[in-house]
Design brief:
Length: 132
Amino acid sequence: MRLIKPALVYFILIFATGFTLAMIRIPFLVPRLGERWAELVELPLMVLASFLVARWLVQRFRLVTVMQCIGTGLPALLMMLSAELAVMRFQGQSLGEYLAGRDPVSGMAYLFSLLLFAAMPLLVRQQAVNRP
């Protein structure tokens, strides 16, 4: 139960970052670069945000064990996927339509970024443990 709060904070901060960046990407970058390149430009910023927030979470909530980090990253990922599904349904798309409409290149990069998002608390914990 102790890990629900850091997982929720992690999800909210990264979801809010993605929402904010989408407000820039959709009206300004997509018309100029196209969907694929606009998403690929946004992606490193999202990974950086995941890194910074995860590093802060590990320190703030004292996530010192591997299981605490996994117990934060995986629930946050489930929340993120649930939010993505809710947005998709709000837009009137089925899961099949959503997946078929994704660009294969930026879609795979996005999938990889979600895996990094889930693993980031563990990755930054390892960095803190290995620091002299």
